[in-house]
């Protein structure tokens, strides 16, 4: 009996102190840090791939006329760009950050469900392989936009839709498993003394995000399944000829899609709420109002979905309801922005790369939020809807919002991950190149949209030509600026740089800075005491 | 260094001036002001919301800027320690709320007016299909379809682009001014969206459902719009052109149009009894094919593999003649192949089927006459 126990102990100890090497380490890993690293590199790869699709779009739109690609391929590019950026770049990046940081922030040894953690990552590459391979089928891949409105995605799509549906299912499973893991970890594995209202904002925002994911991913699964059966098995959920309704598709899709928008921004709020206090050397202003604001944004996100559908012909009462609810979201979002600005106020700021990205986030996300208010006003949305004004709006919240916050996070925590400081000069160069080019890219889209250019157009009337040329130039500058980011991160991964202390940022707060840099493979085997 | 800055400035100035040199059309940066009371109100609302947003942005960003300039470590600032202030937090929750109400009130009033299609004086059914618009004047015997007039040669750069590139159609919608016109918008296949910016109307065309919208145009003129909902590969190539005429001119136009369409129908009846020669059929058929069929099946009949069937050398066009007539007349449900019986005349249907059966090496030798189509449709009923 006692020998058995001893053996078990040995096996346990062996598991802790030796890890498989080479490819096996990454395939079989259950370590939250390894899985975090996998997620982050995967997301960066998808970001570059989705970005290259965007560059194909921008190349074609540089001048009026069809020059490089055909309209059918153009539609495949817009579709794949959207799907890859949403499900392949932004969401996995946040899951990667959650994997790396949440256990260290709350003083837990690992994620609560490590084997599921491994699986939720490793099914992702296959989902995207399936989706990308559909582009080589006869008729090409999905060409109905990332929103895949029926009946364009049902009766009028190619057979590759089946692969699209299958890969969406896999991505959904991956997200749901990731979300379950976050909830179980944050709820059960906090260090003694860390009450909910003492958690870092990043843990709070991710906890709320995880609940959103669990609530809406099944709706996405349902709607893609209905597309599948409508197309291949003769059902008529979205076809009026069989008693269905194409607008039902949009209600279901956006019931998923709007909370999804907040899934892609709430973790950013957590990141920014960690970085601004660190570099202002001053505690976050209004911690509890931040928590309440995040929760109310999440709650309201379920009541605004139809603002994507103002032109579908809903009853006036519904239009008014969704307009008021949409405007209401501006209140908690405003609270967050005011809190960040007040955190900066009378601080003692320095402007390292993470702080630069965080400040750019606050400014540019605010611009995106304000154009969001404009879009929420139904009568004028009739004019903005499905134009480049919308494209400008959601790229301001997604690129200069979500993506900038992810880059800020990468610069902020890379010393902890790699053990070396990143190259500050290159980091700043990356920031300024990105900041200038991203605005050349997206700001003129407001104007071209107001002037009347609809989105998803492979070719356009001549009055839009000048702005489109400028936008395309901005697109290429922004795309190639990201190579600087790649260089900075690869240098860190190769341990080239100044060795980083345990706490490289003077004003940083949190348990993650109490462990050495790079963080040992296993941290907090015995939980820390939080006062 | 100085020279560099100067040359940079020059380049910037050149870039800013470039639009004026290059533009064949005026560069527009804002929404067009309305040409009806309603679209004027929408424009005013847009500007109101825009200015409010600008004021908020300037306020927030100025505070940030002051903070960034003054509260930095390099100025020797010591950080304050405050992290809460219930009073100020309540204030900045309530003030945005009040601003939002200030926007919501005019928005609600405008919306209620926009959605009220009562008391219209003229009703037009607008039907979208891949990739054209059909207009049906319910109060008159007038209906026609409206197709992009820009030739492929301009799109693919073999000819210089004309002034209204992709913004011109063969048969514009004609509307009277100072009349409340109601649009009944629907679709035959996928979802389209009928949008004329000057009218501030954008309404989705949903297959199987009808959406309503209205306008009351003040000034005669030409107004141009787009399809605004992704509807497949021809999405960018189904523009809208509206010509607004004084009511008297409109009456004259609509009556001459009625007469013209009636004469066409009469001619059609005569043609039923007549045989067209192969050359006539092929000539007419080629024109119809290029305007109606080539977007999907391609000008050379090769189709797009996996998406649109090939017609050259295989399938329908070299198979059974009746099946071929059937699919062109009735379409194929659940696919992009639409029924052409309502949009093409019998002689046009006959010509295009003859063309498909004899072009691109499909030398079936089959001739289809208008009478064959007539008999086919009779046989169905």
A few lines on this structure:
Chain A is built from 16 helices and no strands. Chain A has helices at residues 2-17, 22-28, 32-61, 71-106, 114-133, 161-188, 201-232, 246-263, 266-280, 287-300, 316-344, 353-376, 378-384, 388-418, 424-450, 465-493.
Structure description:
The complex is a heterodimer of chains A (531) and B (381). With 531 residues, chain A is mainly alpha-helical. Chain A has two domains: 31-240, Cytochrome c oxidase-like, subunit I domain (Cytochrome C Oxidase, Chain A, Up-down Bundle), CATH 1.20.210.10; 265-515, Cytochrome c oxidase-like, subunit I domain (Cytochrome C Oxidase, Chain A, Up-down Bundle), CATH 1.20.210. Helices cover 68% and strands 0% of the residues of chain A. Chain A is built from 16 helices and no strands. Chain A has helices at 2-17, 22-28, 32-61, 71-106, 114-133, 161-188, 201-232, 246-263, 266-280, 287-300, 316-344, 353-376, 378-384, 388-418, 424-450, 465-493. In chain A, helix 7 packs antiparallel against helix 9 (266-280) and helix 11 packs antiparallel against helix 12 (353-376). Chain B is α+β, with helices and mostly antiparallel strands. Chain B has three domains: 25-72 and 83-116, Orthogonal Bundle (Helix Hairpins), CATH 1.10.287.90; 122-262, Immunoglobulin-like, CATH 2.60.40; 274-380, Cytochrome c-like domain (Cytochrome Bc1 Complex, Chain D, domain 2, Orthogonal Bundle), CATH 1.10.760. In chain B, 44% of the residues lie in helices and 15% in strands. Chain B contains nine helices and ten strands. Chain B has helices at 2-22, 37-70, 86-114, 152-155, 247-273, 278-297, 321-330, 346-358, 370-380; strands at 122-129, 132-137, 142-146, 173-176, 181-187, 192-196, 201-205, 211-215, 221-227, 240-245. Chain B has a five-stranded mixed beta sheet. A five-stranded mixed beta sheet of chain B has the order 4-10-9-6-7, with helices on one face. In chain B, a hairpin with a 4-residue loop joins strand 2 and strand 3. The N and C termini of chain B lie far apart (85 Å). The interface between A and B is large, with 102 and 106 residues.
